[in-house]
Amino acid sequence: GQRLAEWDPYTTPILTEVKGKVRFEDLMDSVSVREETDEATGIAQRVIADWRATPRGADLRPAVAIVNDKGEYMKIATGGDARYLLPVGAILSVADGDEAKPGDVMARLPTESAKTRDITGGLPRVAELFEARRPKDCAVIAEMDGRVEFGKDYKNKRRIKITPEDVDGVAGEPVEFLIPKGKHISVHDGDTIQKGDYIIDGNPDPHDILRILGVEELANYLVNEIQEVYRLQGVPINDKHIETIVRQMLQKVEILDPGDTGLLKNDHIDKPEVDAENAKTIARKGRPALTQPVLLGITKASLQTRSFISAASFQETTRVLTDASVNGKVDTLEGLKENVIVGRLIPAGTGSYLRSLQRIATKRDEALTAEREAAMEALPEVIAQQAAAEAPVPEAAETPAE
Predict the structure, then answer these.
(1) What are 50-57's contacts with CB under 8 Å, separation 24+?
(2) Which domains does the chain have, with CATH numbers?
(3) What is the C-alpha to C-alpha distance for residues 307 and 149, in angstroms, rounded to an integer?
(4) How many Å from the N-terminal Cα to the C-terminal Cα in the chain?
């Protein structure tokens, strides 16, 4: 029955790693900190206010520091100062001058409750994911492995620099991020960070996931996030349906280097077209095009499909048909929608497979028939040649002796 561990599921703690005395920095009453009373319990607590909104608080950086008896900063394991910046909304758990021990909670960050977890409230989240929109207050993702350094602040933003580790004695180029003050930064000065780790918590931008982590991580993220909304309401949906939509969202690639192909740089083209063009280029020993995947929202992906008939049936019909006629596009009727629109059977199901076999058999029969006809046309000539070859050669008359 002994309790091994306990935690508060509704808050994220800010912990200290060293022993020392607590010192408040830039915590001014009614400017950067205010006292609030909990309506349920009646307990008063000190909460970090948005100091950026007041002229007096423009240059403040509210923090809790751990100092020694001389007032000097204690050092944490990574070599940085034991100074913990406080974001807006943090609830203080210590008082100025308290003695702190390693593991003590300096402040707590309330975890936002799930406001939009029902189906009707969650549908905007699903639409945001399918349309590949940038979320409000999105997370910041580390673009490389490296060491975190806090640089000089720029106006009302904090500068964070990630310096990659040396590889074979060669140092990489550092990457800088400007983070608005008041946001909770999940890393500390001197920390080692991995590619894809969150510097600021929140919903990440899908375009950032694609650029930094790749197609597979993006597909997993989209499927899991969309399924989460439906699972909470007990709505079972097979992953394959969402994966099919995500595949269509990733059908285009951007040309980074056209190589020896006839493609243009920065164009967005369907991946099969680029693969076909690259195959032709490689066959003639040329340099293939370099590409990177592009994420499109479902509306934009539907309008940029290879079939102009399918695109015209969705939105902006006049513009799509005008562009198709000006560019002389040809629709090969490979998809479902365009075949339904023109009254043909869709290329799917067992019937489609049987029809494909019939087409192959028909082509083979046509080839055999053509061979037979060619053979029949040449038959009289062959017979004449054989008859000429078999005819007896007349003997030459003997010349009488003189």
Answers:
(1) 50/88, 50/182, 51/26, 51/88, 51/182, 52/156, 52/181, 52/182, 56/28, 56/31, 57/28, 57/31, 57/32
(2) 11-110 (2.40.50.100), 119-247 (2.40.50.100), 248-330 (no CATH)
(3) 50
(4) 144
- Contact assessment for residue 33 and residue 95, using Cβ atoms and an 8 Å cutoff: no
Enumerate the H helices of 158-205 as residue ranges.
none
Copy the structure tokens of residue 300: 């934009």
Q: Is 371 exposed, middle or buried (0-12, 13-18, 19+ CB in 10 A)?
A: exposed
Beta-bridge partner residues of 269:
253
Q: Say if residue 373 is exposed, middle or buried (CB neighbours under 10 Å; 0-12, 13-18, 19+).
A: exposed
Residues contacting residue 175 through CB under 8 Å, at least 6 positions apart: 143, 144, 146, 161, 162
- Is 173 within 8 Å of 116 (Cβ atoms)? no
- Write down the pTM of the prediction: 0.69
Cα–chain center distance at 127: 16
Asked whether 187 and 163 are in contact (CB, 8 A), the reply is: no
Per-residue pLDDT of the chain (402 residues; tens, 9 = 90+): 888 877 777 788 888 889 999 999 888 888 888 888 877 777 888 888 887 777 776 678 888 999 988 888 888 887 778 888 888 888 898 988 889 899 888 898 887 654 445 566 678 888 999 999 988 888 889 888 888 888 887 777 888 888 887 766 666 788 888 888 778 888 877 788 888 888 888 889 999 999 999 999 999 999 999 998 888 888 899 999 999 999 999 999 999 998 888 888 888 888 888 999 999 999 998 899 999 999 999 988 888 888 899 889 888 899 999 999 999 999 988 888 899 999 988 888 887 888 888 889 999 999 999 988 888 887 787 787 777 777 666 665 555 555
Residue with tokens 């058999």: 361
Query: How many residues can be counted in the chain?
Result: 402
Q: What six digits make up the tokens of 337?
A: 């929608």
State whether residue 356 is helix, strand or coil: helix
